[in-house]
Amino acid sequence: MSTVPTWIVIAKAPRAGRSKTRLCPPCTPQQAADLAEAALGDTLAAVLAAPAGRRVVVLEGEPGAWLPDGFEVVPQRGDGLDERLAGAFQDVAADATGGAVLVGMDTPQVTPGDLADAWAALQADGTDAVLGHAPDGGYWSIGLRVQDPALFVGLPMSTEHTGADQEARLRAHDLSVSLLPERRDVDLIDDARAVAALAPDTRFARTLERTVATFGTTTPSDAPSPRTPEPTR
What pTM value is reported for the model? Predict the structure, then answer.
């Protein structure tokens, strides 16, 4: 039986002083929030362009003008990102045929094709979960056909081994995991530059170009960003 995708975008409402704070400096808090909003906008546009039965933003904060039509909004719940991820799948995907695929708001280079490939991988015979690692040690996407808070709760988040720990947790619960292509997420300014170079036609890249013009240029690095805790995104 064919299934239609259920997409979850876990996000924080862009707000100065609360969004992408690790971009400061060189960004001001407002510039960091503008870049967060642009990244979120690109992510939502990709989800809108992908086939879907349901599109849900699991949100910390209040929706604003950045939210396009076509999305439901469900509030985040839980004390940490581990609990919020568990809550997102419980609240959105508990009854979803074929499960759901979740993405964050930190990878504006993600395309509808990337999403379609993730869904196809999740629907493959014998596959229970998909996971997309990030080069800084985290992960940019996770998809599940089974829902169990134990897949997340208690897992250390925002570390250089969160992605490896998440994969190990899935496998420890006897889930068959298919790995998605690695994608770099945006934490530091070097990440922002590298991602914008990969996707120069995105809103994020245009916003970064305007932002950089206000503080000059520096030599970007392709090295992965170190992971330090930041408020839930």
Answer: 0.90
